[in-house]
TrEMBL record:
Gene3D superfamilies: HUPs (3.40.50.620). CDD domains: LarE-like (cd01990). It holds the Pfam family ATP_bind_3. Residues 20-127 form the tRNA(Ile)-lysidine/2-thiocytidine synthase N-terminal domain. It comes from Paraclostridium ghonii. This is tRNA(Ile)-lysidine/2-thiocytidine synthase N-terminal domain-containing protein.
Length: 269
């Protein structure tokens, strides 16, 4: 099936749903889905964004800007105390507990707004990574029309570019909790340290990055093609001092560079 055929399949699926509430993070997939759904359903398409401690404030602001420019109704639900015990304890099913809580909240928003279907931006490629949160989506009957239309990440980026969606070349960005090793408790303080350090890397111009934490150690991952930028004594010293100011005791550079889901290495799929 061609990419354009898959896009038509997606549009037809959306038409059949009649009204949709899209879980909108501002990332590549949910932004593309929101654009197509809004073009297809008009005001029968609504975006909802959960703003809790594991989310980047910068990402939330970008999500608000896009929905405003698109002219779509956007509901932001601020969760000041995300106290899901199993999520905070951070075992290997952390994502399941998080998705269960977040999408239960989103389903309530859909019910309050008389909307038929809740959608998320899972694509076909997501099935290849360790993602326990997908089970929670299935249990809550959340629909994933990008996956159902057999759209891959590459195809979504290509179609986004054709449709003038600004996130077509946006780097992948996951919830901040994915930077913390399983078994290490998740706290708001740790998440804010990660957020500040990743904003620093973004402001330096790095495209794809992660700051993984291991206790009081920060492990910086950047694209392999950008590692050479750190072969500069001045930048190393400035980065070290910045991360120390943020609260880390030790700062390291991962020699293999950025790897999606590197915290999942060694987990049985």
């Amino acid at each position: 099936m061609s990419t354009s055929d898959k896009l038509n399949v997606l549009k037809n699926k959306l038409k059949e749903m009649e009204s949709v509430l899209i879980a909108f993070s501002g990332g590549v997939d949910s932004t593309f889905l929101l654009k197509v759904a809004h073009d297809t359903l008009g005001d029968k398409c609504v975006a909802v964004t959960i703003h809790a401690m594991m989310h980047s404030n910068r990402e939330i602001d970008e999500a608000k800007e896009f929905t405003k420019a698109l002219g779509v109704k956007h509901i932001v639900v601020k969760v000041d105390d995300f106290d899901v015990k199993e999520f905070i304890e951070n075992d290997e099913k952390r994502c399941y507990y998080c998705k269960k809580a977040v999408f239960t909240n989103i389903k309530n928003v859909a019910k309050d707004n008389n909307i038929n279907c809740v959608l998320d931006g899972t694509n076909l490629d997501d099935l290849g990574d360790y993602r326990p949160g997908l089970k929670a989506l299935e249990e809550l009957e959340i629909k994933s029309p990008l996956k159902e239309s057999l759209l891959t990440k590459t195809e979504i980026r290509s179609l986004s570019k054709e449709l003038n969606v600004p996130t077509f070349n946006k780097p992948a960005f996951a919830c901040l909790a994915t930077r913390i090793p399983y078994g290490e408790a998740i706290t708001n303080d740790k998440l804010r340290m990660i957020e500040k350090s990743e904003e620093y890397l973004q402001d330096l111009g790095f495209k794809q990055f992660r700051v993984r934490t291991h206790g009081n150690l920060a492990r910086i991952e950047v694209e392999e093609s950008e590692i050479h930028k750190f072969f500069d004594k001045n930048l190393l010293k400035i980065t070290h001092n910045k991360f120390k100011d943020i609260g880390f005791k030790y700062i390291t550079l991962d020699l293999l560079g950025y790897r999606m889901g590197s915290m999942n290495e060694g987990i049985k799929q």
